[in-house]
Amino acid sequence: MAIADHLEELKKTAKQMVVPGKGILAADESSGTIEKKFAKIGVASTEDNRRSYRGLFFTTPGFEEFISGVILFDETLRQSAADGRTFVSILQGVGVLPGIKVDQGTKEMDGSPNEKVTKGLEGLPERLKEYVELGAKFAKWRAVITIGDVLPTDANIRQNAKDLAAYAALCQEAGLVPIVEPEVLMDGGHGIEACADASERTLRAVFEELKKAGVAPEGMILKTNMVIPGKESGTKAAPETIAELTTTLFERVLPDELPGQAFLSGGQSEVEATENLNAMNKKGQFPWKLSFSYGRALQDSALKTWGGKPENIPAAQKAFYHRAKMNSLATLGKYTSEIEKA
């Protein structure tokens, strides 16, 4: 079907994903990523452990007050909880939208091995059709942009932008809201200006390619990085500086029709990710909502509290609920360190 046939439904879903006071939980770690997370707490990455871990988030009492949607991994979309209910039906039952990660990871770019391109376009229309049948309402595709001495190259930015646009068009044709995720990585010793430059080049290319591919901006969500110094730079920027540079860039590049931008945390600590989001929303109203789509910054405390032990699930859920509530306040510009400690 043509994108226009789905547009009203896409617009409605996209607005629901970034409604003020709510954000998106990224629970779509690949098998390799979740294995590394579990290894850090001494837990084996078995199907039962993954089910138990992910299920603790989806069954947290009241989490739907702060979470509009959850990005799932293929395995999780098909899984059921211990009581036999599918995870999709558990989410639907509390009004939370199920989504699905559809990219298949990254590979080295031909001619520029220090840069990455994303795999997964082959066979994507058939996979999207199945995901719709399984209950997914939105999808996600991540592209990564690396900053280095002569990086990112224009060729890498353009290839990733074209692939994101091709994915987004296929999603909208299938009736799924695409989360378009170009991530300028925090890895490296670069300063905040280098991040600002790479982020602007990337977003300009992405929106040029989305337009060429006929993607309706009002039926998609952007998920990108904050403008922030590299992790190895030895510098920290104040939330107000990050907010100023990021929102100024967005005002130059993002179309007004875009319903919202849900930030990735990208290696920030849980509290940093909340403080920086709050600083942006304290600046006032923008044409698009500024929300969150965090993985680690929503899960870290819960993961450590859980530790693979069923008896720790209530305490882990409490940690997750707190983090979700803090980020909910940040989408409204109402987060404070006093509320955090309380």
TrEMBL record:
Recorded catalytic activity of this chain's protein: beta-D-fructose 1,6-bisphosphate = D-glyceraldehyde 3-phosphate + dihydroxyacetone phosphate
GO molecular function: fructose-bisphosphate aldolase activity
Known pathway: Carbohydrate degradation; glycolysis; D-glyceraldehyde 3-phosphate and glycerone phosphate from D-glucose: step 4/4
Organism superkingdom: Bacteria
Enzyme class label: lyase
GO BP of this protein: glycolytic process
Gene3D superfamilies reported in the protein's UniProt record: Aldolase class I
Family that this chain belongs to: Belongs to the class I fructose-bisphosphate aldolase family.
Protein name: Probable fructose-bisphosphate aldolase class 1
Taxon lineage: Bacteria, Candidatus Kaiseribacteriota
